[in-house]
Amino acid sequence: MIRVLVIECLLGVIGGAIAFRLAWATSRNRVLSWGVVLALAVLAFFLFPDHPDRWMVREFGGVPGSPTPGPLVRALHGFCPLAGAGLSWMVLLGRIRAGLEEERRFKDFP
After folding, report:
1. Terminal Cα distance for the chain, rounded
2. pLDDT-derived band of residue 3, with 50, 70 and 90 as boundaries?
3. How many other β-carbons are positioned within 10 Å of the β-carbon of residue 21?
4. Quick check: 97 pLDDT over 90?
5. Residues 48, 51: Cα–Cα separation, whole Å
6. How far apart, in Å, are the Cα atoms of 64 and each of 9, 10, 24, 56, 106?
7. For 7, phi and psi rounded to 5 degrees?
8. What Rg value do the Cα atoms of the chain yield, rounded?
9. Rounded distance between C-alpha atoms, residue 16 and residue 70, angstroms
10. Which of 81, 85, 88 is nearest to 40 (CA)?
């Protein structure tokens, strides 16, 4: 059961990081990028089920009938994209400090 929850959380972290980075690349606006990730987290919180799929639990060696606390699973679905966006934001801040995120719109070809 823990394996399935870890996999779901890692997928949420990756999804949040990708969503943040794509929103940043298109808009270069911090508030809009965080808004996109927050909307993704809210959708994941409300649309994903509050229990892991029985097939996945059985496939990864868990007991299919083991109880899982629904609020914990929903909290993971909501928190993991935000954690991924936070990691992506920290990496982006490092890139900005290093000068790798400057706009190259009107510069000549190098």
Report:
1. 53
2. confident
3. 18
4. yes
5. 9
6. 19, 21, 40, 9, 58
7. -65, -45
8. 18
9. 21
10. 81
For residue 60, give both structure tokens.
């990864």
On the CB side of 95, how many CA atoms lie within 13 Å of its CA? 12
> What letter would DSSP give residue 110?
-
Residue-wise pLDDT tens digits, 14-67 = 999 999 999 999 999 999 999 999 999 999 999 988 877 777 777 877 776 667
How high is the pLDDT of residue 110? 57
Cβ neighbors of 81 (< 8 A, separation 6 or more) are: 12, 13, 15, 16, 19, 37, 40, 41, 44
Helical ranges in 29-69 per DSSP H: 30-47, 54-59
pTM of the model as a whole: 0.83
DSSP at 99: T
96, amino acid identity? I
List the structure tokens of 37.
């990730």
Cα gap 44→74, rounded to integer Å:
8
Tell me, what amino acid is at 99? G
